[in-house]
Model the fold of this input.
Amino acid sequence: MHLVGEFARTGKRAEALDICLAAADRKFTDVQKSHALELAAGYARSQKKPELAEQLISRIPIPAVRSAATMRHLLDTYKAPEVVAKFGGEEIAKWPFWKRGDGWFARGRAYAIAKNGKEAEAALTRALEWTSDTRIRDEIALSRAQNDEGNLHDDDRALASYQQIVEPAKHLGSSTQFNALRGIAGIQTKRGKFDDALATLRRVDPAKQQGYWRWQFLILQGDTLLAANRKDEARAAYKFVADDPSADAGLREHAADKIAAMK
Done:
């Protein structure tokens, strides 16, 4: 199983799925089998195989792990209302202590998507209480910040949560950290602090990024410059994305639309 993480980090999800499936068929403990099947379901979803993911989840022997995996599956397949309907009354507090954080986190995410801000805040707070992994704690903090901003309309608390994600980091490189920077810059832009917002976004050099985030940060800079009425600079940022055939198609279209609207 030690190869699973390496394959996942290098994008070899098919290989990671194969290892998890093989592990699940061995004579392991229920805890080991549950973990392998839960991982396998996630890799199946990443390969756009939701039916296989559902089959794998149904084989998980530990009820709490099976419920958490089901909640995650529903969230990842854009069925948050089903999480609320099926698991809103789930007694997560009675789950094994090592799975409660996952359960509360999934429920909190579902409530946030459903615009139930107070319920989301309560669940996400519980998730933090039962989560020790730094990476996952950052993900929970991001969900809390987005819920504070989008549902509870508390920008001050959202800003504090976003900052808690990025300030301690020596190096910014995860999508959670990048989304936190986007959240900080967005609030600063709403408050008319355009120079601060640009400084926040420029903590990441797009030229040193690959894939989606390379172009997303240029788009975010363009949006901030446009909000500051610095149209020439905004147009240049958008044009850089729109003219690059290697950029994400959706972002290229967004950039082209922004340029067209400025004429």
User: Anything to note?
Assistant: Confidence is low (pLDDT under 50) at residues 1-11. The chain has 15 helices and no strands. The first helix runs from residue 2 to 9.
